[in-house]
Write a structure and sequence with these properties.
This protein is of the alpha+beta class. Helix content is about 25%, strand content about 25%. The protein has one domain: Alpha-Beta Complex (Aspartate Aminotransferase, domain 1), CATH 3.90.1150. A hairpin with a 4-residue loop joins strand 1 and strand 2.
Protein backbone atom coordinates (compact mmCIF):
# COMPACT_ATOMS: atom_id res chain seq x y z
CA UNK A 1 0.00 0.00 0.00
CA UNK A 2 1.31 3.43 -0.87
CA UNK A 3 1.72 6.26 1.58
CA UNK A 4 -0.04 9.60 0.99
CA UNK A 5 2.06 11.61 -1.43
CA UNK A 6 3.71 8.60 -3.07
CA UNK A 7 3.77 8.80 -6.84
CA UNK A 8 1.48 6.41 -8.69
CA UNK A 9 3.74 3.60 -9.96
CA UNK A 10 2.40 3.64 -13.54
CA UNK A 11 3.87 7.13 -14.02
CA UNK A 12 7.31 6.48 -12.56
CA UNK A 13 8.77 4.51 -15.50
CA UNK A 14 8.08 7.15 -18.16
CA UNK A 15 9.14 9.99 -15.84
CA UNK A 16 12.37 8.20 -14.98
CA UNK A 17 13.12 7.60 -18.64
CA UNK A 18 12.63 11.30 -19.41
CA UNK A 19 14.41 12.75 -16.40
CA UNK A 20 17.31 10.35 -16.03
CA UNK A 21 18.02 10.61 -19.75
CA UNK A 22 19.22 14.19 -19.23
CA UNK A 23 22.89 14.92 -18.41
CA UNK A 24 24.01 14.58 -14.77
CA UNK A 25 20.54 14.09 -13.30
CA UNK A 26 19.57 12.02 -10.32
CA UNK A 27 16.41 10.90 -8.55
CA UNK A 28 15.67 11.15 -4.85
CA UNK A 29 12.80 10.95 -2.42
CA UNK A 30 11.33 14.36 -1.68
CA UNK A 31 9.39 15.38 1.45
CA UNK A 32 6.50 13.73 -0.45
CA UNK A 33 6.80 11.99 -3.77
CA UNK A 34 9.93 11.79 -5.87
CA UNK A 35 12.02 14.53 -7.44
CA UNK A 36 14.64 14.72 -10.16
CA UNK A 37 17.54 17.11 -9.84
CA UNK A 38 20.48 18.51 -11.74
CA UNK A 39 23.21 19.48 -9.32
CA UNK A 40 21.03 20.49 -6.34
CA UNK A 41 18.18 22.01 -8.33
CA UNK A 42 14.85 20.24 -8.65
CA UNK A 43 13.50 20.32 -12.21
CA UNK A 44 10.67 17.79 -11.78
CA UNK A 45 8.67 16.57 -8.79
CA UNK A 46 5.94 13.93 -8.93
CA UNK A 47 3.41 13.42 -6.15
CA UNK A 48 -0.02 11.88 -5.70
CA UNK A 49 -2.63 14.01 -3.94
CA UNK A 50 -5.43 12.19 -2.12
CA UNK A 51 -7.79 15.11 -2.78
CA UNK A 52 -7.66 17.54 -5.69
CA UNK A 53 -7.02 20.37 -5.67
CA UNK A 54 -4.77 20.98 -2.66
CA UNK A 55 -5.96 23.92 -0.57
CA UNK A 56 -3.34 26.29 -2.05
CA UNK A 57 -4.58 25.87 -5.65
CA UNK A 58 -7.61 27.19 -7.45
CA UNK A 59 -8.48 24.53 -10.00
CA UNK A 60 -11.44 22.28 -10.68
CA UNK A 61 -11.92 19.42 -8.23
CA UNK A 62 -11.23 15.91 -9.48
CA UNK A 63 -12.34 12.63 -7.86
CA UNK A 64 -9.96 10.20 -6.20
CA UNK A 65 -6.19 10.38 -5.97
CA UNK A 66 -4.55 12.64 -8.56
CA UNK A 67 -0.89 12.39 -9.60
CA UNK A 68 0.87 15.52 -10.77
CA UNK A 69 4.34 16.50 -11.83
CA UNK A 70 5.59 20.04 -11.24
CA UNK A 71 8.27 21.66 -13.36
CA UNK A 72 9.83 25.01 -14.26
CA UNK A 73 9.02 26.90 -17.43
CA UNK A 74 10.86 29.67 -19.26
CA UNK A 75 9.45 33.10 -18.35
CA UNK A 76 7.95 33.64 -21.79
CA UNK A 77 5.95 30.39 -21.62
CA UNK A 78 4.56 30.45 -18.07
CA UNK A 79 1.32 32.28 -18.85
CA UNK A 80 0.60 30.28 -22.00
CA UNK A 81 0.98 26.97 -20.18
CA UNK A 82 -0.83 28.13 -17.04
CA UNK A 83 -3.76 29.43 -19.08
CA UNK A 84 -4.04 26.31 -21.25
CA UNK A 85 -6.40 24.73 -18.72
CA UNK A 86 -6.67 21.08 -17.79
CA UNK A 87 -4.36 19.22 -17.33
CA UNK A 88 -2.05 22.22 -16.64
CA UNK A 89 -2.06 24.50 -13.61
CA UNK A 90 0.07 27.14 -11.86
CA UNK A 91 1.68 25.48 -8.86
CA UNK A 92 0.92 28.24 -6.35
CA UNK A 93 4.55 28.97 -5.46
CA UNK A 94 7.43 30.33 -7.49
CA UNK A 95 6.78 32.54 -10.48
CA UNK A 96 7.87 29.87 -12.98
CA UNK A 97 6.54 26.66 -11.38
CA UNK A 98 3.75 24.86 -13.21
CA UNK A 99 2.21 21.43 -13.00
CA UNK A 100 0.51 18.86 -15.16
CA UNK A 101 -2.02 16.29 -14.00
CA UNK A 102 -1.04 12.83 -15.20
CA UNK A 103 -3.57 10.28 -16.39
CA UNK A 104 -4.39 7.67 -18.99
CA UNK A 105 -4.54 10.36 -21.67
CA UNK A 106 -1.20 12.01 -20.82
CA UNK A 107 0.69 13.24 -23.88
CA UNK A 108 4.14 11.90 -22.99
CA UNK A 109 5.80 13.72 -25.90
CA UNK A 110 4.53 16.99 -24.44
CA UNK A 111 5.64 16.02 -20.92
CA UNK A 112 9.08 15.17 -22.33
CA UNK A 113 9.32 18.62 -23.90
CA UNK A 114 8.17 20.38 -20.70
CA UNK A 115 10.53 18.47 -18.41
CA UNK A 116 13.43 18.96 -20.81
CA UNK A 117 12.77 22.71 -20.83
CA UNK A 118 12.52 22.66 -17.03
CA UNK A 119 15.91 20.99 -16.88
CA UNK A 120 17.33 23.61 -19.27
CA UNK A 121 15.99 26.41 -17.04
CA UNK A 122 18.06 25.14 -14.10
CA UNK A 123 21.07 23.27 -15.48
CA UNK A 124 24.45 24.89 -16.09
CA UNK A 125 24.86 26.05 -19.70
CA UNK A 126 27.59 23.49 -20.38
CA UNK A 127 25.03 20.74 -19.65
CA UNK A 128 22.22 22.48 -21.54
CA UNK A 129 24.42 22.40 -24.66
CA UNK A 130 24.42 18.59 -24.46
CA UNK A 131 20.62 18.35 -24.56
CA UNK A 132 18.72 17.37 -27.69
CA UNK A 133 15.58 19.43 -27.18
CA UNK A 134 12.33 17.95 -28.50
CA UNK A 135 9.98 20.03 -30.60
Amino acid sequence: MSEPGDAAPQFLAPLREICLGLPETYEEDAWVGIRWRVRKRTFAHVVTHEAWPPTYLVTAPLPGPVTTVTFRAPAGEVDAIANAGHPFYKAGWGRDVLGVILGNDTDWAEVTELLTESYCCLAPQKLVKLVNRPG
